């Protein structure tokens, strides 16, 4: 197994996922477990059909473990293993640590709090969300690790409404020139200057997590909002609507459930 990611849109070759076997409902939210599994399996099958190899981590007792994106992120050829904010989720990284040993992967275990949904790589920029899950100390730590490995990236801090949990729930990248932003991004001027085109999300659609997309490559976008999926089609993208209503009740969508490990290198 190899790891590499320098952007969010080159063809996705390897990824990590975790089945939602422990997904639970609270007194406020009722979840149909069978429907959640059906919707999740549809996502897995769609990724495989697009040529992505999916690796499944072993389960532990965490009900949030299906949100595999949170437990790590790849910048260039380094796998960063998250330091989870919620004490109940800290054990989720164990399977990822075991994977690094099995395949001898270059990695760094974070000391400062950071979660993968707050990290988006865009060529020579790394956008780092500053909400409740990732702190400013993580920015300095990531910068130090990249510098020590002779990796030259510009780190851009992005501030957003903390109730949205992670950056990829209010901002994402479609391709080299295009990004998605929402009204709950607090410093959009620090982000949009890196893109030629900006697609804005309406506030009334944010609860369906339209920016929490997966881009398997080749102009394809997987999206859990039918409304935004239609918008992407109008913009010229090959968009596929993935029904994900049950898992969205747990405040995460498609992108939250998949940790990209390897994308095709540019011009390869």
Structure described in brief:
The chain is an alpha/beta fold. It is built from 6 helices and 15 strands. Helix 2 links the parallel strand 4 and strand 5.
How would you portray this structure in words?
The chain has 268 residues and is of the alpha/beta class. The protein has a single domain, classed as L-arginine/glycine Amidinotransferase, Chain A. 21% of the residues lie in helices and 24% in strands. The chain has six helices and 15 strands. A three-stranded mixed β-sheet has the order 2-1-15, with helices on one face. Helix 2 (94-103) links the parallel strand 4 (78-81) and strand 5 (107-109). The radius of gyration is 17 Å and the shape is globular. The mean pLDDT is 94.
Runs in which pLDDT lies below 50 for 5 or more consecutive residues are none
CATH architecture: 5-stranded Propeller
- What does the largest sheet look like? 3 strands, mixed
Order of helices and strands: EHEEEHEEEHEEEHEEEHEHE
User: Tell me, what is the CATH class?
Assistant: Alpha Beta
Total separate domains? 1
Structural class: alpha/beta
Number of helices: 6
Helix amount: 10-25%
Total beta strands: 15
Tell me the Rg in angstroms. Answer: 17 Å
**CATH topology descriptor:** L-arginine/glycine Amidinotransferase, Chain A
The CA-CA distance between the termini, in Å, is 18 Å
State the shape: globular
Residue share in β-strands = 15-25%
